[in-house]
Amino acid sequence: MLACFGFKNVFVGHYHNFKRVRPGVFSVGALTHQNWGDVNSKAGYLIVQDKGTVSDVQHFETDAPKFIDMEDIEVDDADRVAGNYVRARIEIDEDKEVVAYRELLVDELGAAAALILPVRKEKAVTRKGAAKTSLDRLEDSVTHFISASSSIDADLKADVNAAVLTTLAEVDHAV
Do residues 61 and 76 touch, judged by C-beta distance below 8 A? Predict the structure, then answer.
């Protein structure tokens, strides 16, 4: 529609992720990642070359730190981790492991900062006279509630559960 007014391209902002919306329409995206909501987004800058009636638009990522998520930490991850903000969901037995994983990411692998979201390994706890249940932890109870819920679309349950567990871990870490 804007082509009839002489526009070859339209560049819009606000969204953090670069995206070619349709031919000639681009969401520019942010120059750098800003927060954990930017995980897996394409931040950077554009170079536009005018070629008569058409423009060549190229997106380039910067070397600025990114926000990345990890499930496992391997020594081979140094290239991915170095200089970036890392949020890692790690299964642990004891709280002191959180410090060890954070030190591994920051001191050994070169992360700019690290947030460890500890996932407790299941422990068999028995108390005399107490009913045995696998839902003694809040995380287990929430997961059970979401999986049993009929008001949450089945295709979204895994994403909803992951988002809620991430929020719980962040709150637990902040306290």
Answer: no
Contact 16, 41 (CB under 8 A): yes
Token readout for 119 is 């996932």
**pLDDT tens for the 175 residues of the chain, in order:** 666 777 777 777 766 788 888 887 888 888 899 999 999 988 898 888 877 666 788 889 999 999 999 998 887 889 999 999 999 999 999 989 999 999 999 999 999 999 999 998 876 656 665 555 555 678 888 888 888 888 888 888 888 888 888 888 877 666 5
Q: How far apart are CA 92 and CA 84, in angstroms?
A: 23
Instruction: Give pTM, 2 decimals.
Output: 0.61
Closest by CA position to 107, among listed 127, 87, 78, 132: 78
